[in-house]
Write a structure and sequence with these properties.
The chain has about 180 residues and is mostly helical. Helix content is about 80%, strand content about 0%. The mean pLDDT is about 85.
Length: about 180
Amino acid sequence: MRMTDEQILHELKTGHYSKAAKGLYRYFPVVRQMVMKNSGNKQDAEDVYQEALLILFRKAKEERFKLTSKLDTFIYSLCRYQWMNELRKRKKEASADLEQAEDEAETVHSFFEEEKQFAQAERAVLKLGKKCRELLKLFYFDQLGLKAIAARLGFSNEQVAKNQKYRCLEKAREHFLSPNA
């Protein structure tokens, strides 16, 4: 014999949850269908239904709780609300995951672009003569002043070293901008 809505609520209020649950599970197929039509699966439907039953169990214990619709409508509404919230949450997570993946792809792309430019710059410097490479190394890597570089490389003064550094950079820039030349 099928329990009425009033009987189910009475069983819940008196703490006979297993009796009430037997009467409540007849509403599950409609909820499962709603969830599965809205991007869910059977496990999602079961989870949503269990959550809705927990809410109903708590509400039924409250003195002021009064069912203003049929029990199946109330449960369906709870489940629909729960499922729509879950879908919004999943959409946000998917959106965040997609955004993170795009950021990671951009970072990787930037890294490879930088590596490509570094390799191109290295090739441009390697095309320079030995004296130019040495001058640029002393200035940029060893951070020597132009006066010390002039003395080390045999230039007559630091102005000559400065002019030579400028010519070496221009030649490297040419090689960099036209790598096949």
